[in-house]
Write a structure and sequence with these properties.
Length: 430
């Protein structure tokens, strides 16, 4: 009946252009999780979790108005789920006025790791800075202590580079130059060559990445003398597609030559082993179930026509489980205090603190891997390292920052048969 329903707000980026329309796969994934947690007998006993879903189009303005509608109209919402970094920033900054926990399943911006601005924010999507300890680990593994940085002038990359610079300083790694560009990388790449950069970390969105790669081909800043670190969450064939459409002057073959051998880092969003997760499914079981749901929704999955956000779908699925487990724990603790979630209002600090504490201590194996949050509410995640070998991405290994454990398959290949140097070695013959 009505009073035994726990209401939460869900804000998903579905329609619209520009930004990340990841709600297309994340909303169906969240709805699957809702079915599953409400079917669990010994979870939220006697209560049902209800998700009020809305479209933010990845627009902070629309996200804010959707949030106000959720909060100004009954029933009370006990928590908010959000996607894009821009929407999550707006919602999390405002939500603290209502003592609401905000759980973001699609926000990668490093700026969100800030308990002063976002005291009630948690995210199952790792921050973009999660790549940096892995980059440092790889530089140390191959003996590179002289690196360059090439970045697109976007907030997420600016704050990621700041974190990387701090970690390089800590590790005694010299940054010979940091070049940034808005959309045309020509001059920035020229400056890399001028500084004799050999090991370069590249941070840009995929459209800019295609422009960079073609520029590297033209300026011959690729091949056996150079090692490029790119971001790993572009499509696997990103350097061969959309060339005409985006005015790229290189051929597919030239792009392949420039791309050969580059390394990538990315956060793992799908659990890699076959373990049974808290939902009773393995990650592969979840994939099959999500694919069936998406086919029913009209996506031509068998012909690789995936909706945006497919990669991040496990993060949304596990976000709903995080909510259910946190509410379950809160209900147990409140009942001991003669209280209940039924008494929740937007100015009930005692219940809000219980919900916060329960989310903060959430730990479980989800389809996105082990789910746990740092003191800043950041997702703790593994990273994956790949390399393009003969035009295809090959898994080189995984890194667990928490335990500083690098699992390495020893399958990397260097074009010149040996590990490239980070500088010109002048051999003085005495
Ligand atoms: C890995 C990516 C594509 C990074 O951007 C996230 C969206 C955002 O941070 O707004 C979604 N996941």
């Amino acid at each position: 009946e009505e009073e035994n329903i726990l209401h939460i707000g869900g804000i998903f980026p579905i329609a619209g252009e520009g930004g990340w329309q990841g709600g297309q796969a994340c909303m169906p994934a969240a709805h699957l999780a809702l079915e599953d947690v409400n079917r669990e007998k010994n979870l939220l006993r006697g209560y049902r979790l209800h998700l009020h879903s809305n479209d933010s189009e990845c627009e902070p303005g629309l996200g804010a108005s959707v949030m106000y509608n959720l909060l100004y109209f009954p029933p009370y919402k006990l928590m908010l789920l959000a996607g894009c970094s821009t929407v999550c920033t707006t919602v999390a900054e405002a939500a603290k006025m209502w003592n609401l926990v905000v759980l973001c399943y699609g926000a990668s911006s490093p700026a969100l790791s800030d308990r002063n601005r976002f005291p009630t924010l948690f995210r199952t999507h790792p921050s973009a800075t999660v790549h940096n300890p892995t980059r440092i680990k790889l530089l140390q593994k191959f003996g590179w202590s002289r690196v360059a940085i090439l970045q697109q002038a976007e907030e997420v990359f600016i704050s990621t580079v700041e974190d990387l610079e701090a970690r390089c300083k800590e590790a005694g790694i010299e940054i010979v130059t940091r070049q940034s560009f808005l959309s045309d990388p020509t001059d920035a790449v020229k400056n890399l060559r001028r500084q004799d950069a050999r090991i370069i970390v590249g941070l840009f969105y995929v459209v800019a990445a295609r422009r960079v790669l073609c520029e590297l081909y033209h300026q011959k800043l690729y091949g056996k003398t150079y090692v490029w670190f790119f971001i790993g969450w572009y499509e696997d064939d990103w350097f061969e597609i959309n060339l005409e459409k985006e005015g790229i002057t290189c051929t597919k073959e030239q792009m392949r030559q420039a791309a050969e051998g580059h390394l990538t880092t990315e956060a793992l969003m799908w659990n890699q082993n076959n373990d049974t997760t808290i939902s009773g499914m393995t990650a592969e079981d979840f994939r099959k179930r999500l694919n069936k749901q998406l086919k029913d929704d009209g996506y031509d999955i068998d012909n690789n026509r995936y909706p945006e956000g497919y990669q991040e779908a496990p993060l949304a699925y596990d976000a709903v489980w995080s909510v259910a487990l946190a509410f379950n724990r809160t209900m147990e603790r409140l009942s001991k205090m003669g209280n209940s979630l039924k008494n929740f209002t937007y100015d009930n600090k005692e219940i809000a603190d219980e919900i916060y504490a329960a989310v903060n201590s959430t730990q479980f194996l989800g389809v996105s891997g082990y789910v746990a949050f740092s003191s800043q509410g950041d997702r703790i995640a593994l990273t994956q390292i790949e390399q393009v070998i003969d035009g295809k991405y090959v898994k080189l290994g995984y890194y667990d920052t928490q335990s500083d454990n690098l699992t390495w398959r020893n399958v990397e290949r260097w074009i010149g048969e040996k590990v490239p140097q980070d500088r010109t070695i002048i051999r003085t013959v005495l």
